[in-house]
Amino acid sequence: MMNILEAKTSLSKLVASVESGEVKEVIIARNGKPAARLVPIEKMPKVRIGLFEGQYVIPDGLDQPDEDIARLFNDSHWNPGPASDA
Q1: Closest C-alpha among 59, 61, 15 to residue 41
Q2: pLDDT digits over 39-83, tens only?
Q3: How far is Cα 7 from Cα 60, in angstroms, rounded to an integer?
Q4: pLDDT tens for residues 8-51?
Q5: DSSP assignment of 7-46
Q6: For residues 15 and 26, is the Cβ–Cβ distance under 8 A?
Q7: Taking the model in full, what pTM does it have?
Q8: Region at 66 (left for phi over 0; alpha for psi -120 to 50; beta for the rest)
């Protein structure tokens, strides 16, 4: 356990020693009472690309233009046109 002033002056070294596993944790005290704990961050698991490969079928033509959707964008009800300067 070390006080805040000691931790402040050697923070980089403390982080390096916790990060490397040299020490498991560092307890920082305020007025002799434990106030904070410096511990390493758990390693994040690697993201596996293709995790769901083969579980879903993407239909042919999914990326082709769709007239119904295009009509929705061009419909005056949904697309009132440019605002007037009234």
Answers
A1: 15
A2: 999 887 777 777 788 888 888 888 888 888 888 887 766 656 666
A3: 61
A4: 999 999 999 999 999 999 999 999 999 999 999 988 777 777 77
A5: HHHTHHHHHHHHHHTSSS-EEEEETTEEEEEE-PPPPPPP
A6: no
A7: 0.50
A8: beta
Residue position matching structure tokens 């070294």: 13
Place of tokens 């390693």: 43
Distance between CA atoms of 6 and 36, rounded to whole angstroms?
Answer: 13
The tokens for 81 are 């046109």
- Can you tell me which residue has the tokens 């002056």? 9
* Assigned token pair, 66: 């769709």
Tokens encoding 79 = 């697309």
Rounded CA-CA distance 6/16 in Å is 15
CA separation for the pair 7, 17 (Å, rounded): 12
